[in-house]
Amino acid sequence: MKKALLIIDRGSRAEEVKTELKELCKITGSKGGYQYCNFCFLEVVPPFIDEGIAKCVDSGSDLITVMPYFLYPGMKLKDTVKQSAIFCREKNLRLVITKPLCYHNLMINILKEKIDNLKKKKNLKIPDSEIDLLMIGHGSSDKNARHAFLYSVDKLKPFYRNVEFCFLELDTPDIEQGISNILKKNPKNVVLLPYFLHNGIHLQKDIPEELERITKSCNFDMHIAEHLGVNEKLVDMILQRAMEAENRIVF
Fold it and tell me: Which residue from 117, 132, 127, 115 is spatially nearest to 166, judged by alpha carbons?
């Protein structure tokens, strides 16, 4: 059976996002043995879902596995699933749709690895037990998205001195409140962990500007870990989600 894997991202105008997705598809397709592996976007910029699925069909694949590339459940995820299902039903295509990336134990390993990599890169001789962690999420008006985010936050708490959280927008606490909550614990070593898949506009501009405004008068060492990006564990997570879906074939 010839299989295609289509990773559907929310969408971004930042070229860095496309670069990361191209690398991700190259590694995932090769490791997963897919005939065809590519990405498309739900919104913002093309290629959109109809074009992404059409290219899967053109590749001669017998089965299309759709991966909603989202950290949270919510409206964007629902829109992705709905559009994919409608298009494939109209074209009578064989399709499976995976779960998103949330509620997976590998995600916790990835997040811890990001902090370990930061410590190595900056030669920080700090035990985890002395790190105050502030995890920054995008934010959503959907309570299910908040629950998924807090699941990851709670899973990290046993490993660090203190773990707080905040959101860039659409939910509370905001970044200023998150910093304030960290300060209440008299921190010495603060690590900011951006819970974002890509190095898009939010990471390049929005979050740095907000942090600069808030932390000018703060008296502690603050270090920022890298976003999730592209790594082997993330590829493994995608392939596990794909296998789960393919084992319960949906037409």
Answer: 132
Quick check: 190 and 221 in contact, CB under 8 A?
yes
Per residue in 127-153, pLDDT (tens digit) is: 999 999 999 999 998 899 999 999 999
Query: Whole-angstrom Cα distance, residue 143 to residue 73?
Result: 9
Task: Pull the structure tokens for residue 72.
Answer: 């949270």
Distance CA(146)–CA(242), nearest Å, equals 24
CA proximity to 241, closest of 40, 105, 83, 89? 105
- 73 class by beta-carbon count within 10 Å (0-12 exposed, 13-18 middle, 19+ buried): buried
**pLDDT value at position 81?**
73
Residue listed under structure tokens 């985010």: 149
Average pLDDT over residues 155-165: 97
Mean pLDDT of 204-222: 81
| Structural domains of the chain in order of their starting residue, each with its CATH number | 3-100+230-246 (3.40.50.1400), 105-224 (3.40.50.1400)
